[in-house]
Structures are given as C-alpha cells and as structure tokens.
C-alpha cells in the first residue's frame, strides 16, 4: 500500500490525491488520510506537536514521518516529541509546510513508507 500524494496546498486548504475531502490540517499514511483535529489531544502552537498527535500515523507502519509546521512555522515540535520518534525508530523530518509537502511527495514518489502531519495555516 502506498502513501497518497498531497495534490495541492494553499493557506488553510489541503487536498490529498484520491480523497474528495479537503483539509485545513491533515494526517496522511500508506493507504489513507484524515483531518488533524488538534482538539483531540489538546495541541496548540506551543508547546506544539505531541506524541499523541502522531500515534495513529505510526500505527500504519511508517518508517519516515514528515511534519509541516505551518506556512510561517508557528507550530512548534518539542525535543521530547523528536526523541520519542527516534526511540520508535522513525526518521522524522520537520519543515515549513510548503517544503514539508515537497519532501513528503518526493518520498511518496520513491515508494517510501511515509506518513505526515501538516498544519496549513500560520
């Protein structure tokens, strides 16, 4: 099963190839995607992405996870989250969201078992 390509990105709007729904923030993994609702885990820009935000993507067997911090990189990724991912054996790549989407799509093109979480606004 392959990861779906991010078809388009603009402020507050993301489209995933093969999905009729558009997202503000989204999670993608081999075979699927869904909205990333920060209220599920109490996430805010600071302290930022928590391990709980990533669990459902990790359970899909990804080897690489790309995190998009927002168009202006307002979303933080604390060292504790990066350490958690490394202990799980996951290659984590953190970028401004436009660059994150480029990186993610390049990994999809290479056939990598990649997942991602993307914030499409600030």
From TrEMBL:
SUPFAM superfamilies: MTH938-like. InterPro entries: AAMDC (IPR034096), MTH938-like_sf (IPR036748), NDUFAF3/AAMDC (IPR007523). GO terms for cellular component: cytoplasm. Its main location: cytoplasm. It is found in: Cytoplasm. The keyword Cytoplasm applies. Gene3D superfamilies: MTH938-like. Keywords: Cytoplasm. One of its GO terms (biological process) is positive regulation of fat cell differentiation. Belongs to the AAMDC family. This is Mth938 domain-containing protein. It comes from Carassius auratus (Goldfish).
């Amino acid at each position: 099963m392959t990861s779906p390509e991010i078809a388009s990105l603009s402020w507050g709007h993301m489209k995933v190839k093969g999905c009729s729904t558009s997202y503000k923030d989204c999670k993608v993994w081999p075979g699927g995607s869904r909205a990333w609702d920060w209220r599920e885990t109490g996430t805010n820009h600071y302290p930022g992405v928590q391990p709980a935000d990533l669990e459902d993507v990790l359970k899909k067997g990804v080897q690489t996870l790309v995190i998009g911090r927002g168009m202006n990189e307002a979303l933080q990724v604390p060292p504790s989250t990066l350490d958690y991912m490394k202990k799980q054996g996951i290659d984590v790549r953190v970028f401004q969201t436009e660059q994150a989407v480029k990186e993610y799509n390049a990994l999809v093109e290479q056939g990598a078992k990649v997942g991602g979480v993307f914030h499409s606004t600030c």
